Amino acid sequence: MKTLNEYLALPYRMELVKDPDEGGFVVSFPDLPGCITCGETLEAAVANAADAKRAWLQAALEDGLPVREPDDLENYSGQFKLRIPKSLHRSLAEHARQEGISMNQYCVYLLSRNDAAAR
């Protein structure tokens, strides 16, 4: 098992979200479930996030809980195979042609737009 300092040195992904209702920012670490904090300013939220990450890791290590290491983009190829109905394939190809881009670029655009909307 790694030490606290070894875990702190790992590149955990931090997600910052502006809080439209309360103001300020909410910060979480997707690889550290329940590790969440906030701050009135972006700088305060980031500083609080460092403290929250340290406290979360320290508590997990003291309690003997497993600590997940950060997800590494090297684990993803950027490719996946998808089977779709022929009618959808035709529709996507036609829309891509109308936009003057490849179907691959068009599908990436659609996936990105919908993924962002889901957040």
From TrEMBL:
This is Type II toxin-antitoxin system HicB family antitoxin. InterPro entries: Arc_rbn_hlx_hlx, HicB-like, Ribbon_hlx_hlx, TA_system_antitoxin, TTHA1013/TTHA0281-like. Residues 19-78 form the HicB-like antitoxin of toxin-antitoxin system domain. SUPFAM superfamilies: Ribbon-helix-helix, TTHA1013/TTHA0281-like. Pfam families: HicB_lk_antitox. The lineage of its organism: Bacteria, Bacillati, Bacillota, Clostridia, Eubacteriales. PANTHER family: ANTITOXIN HICB (PTHR34504), UPF0150 PROTEIN SSL0259 (PTHR34504:SF2). It comes from Faecousia intestinalis.
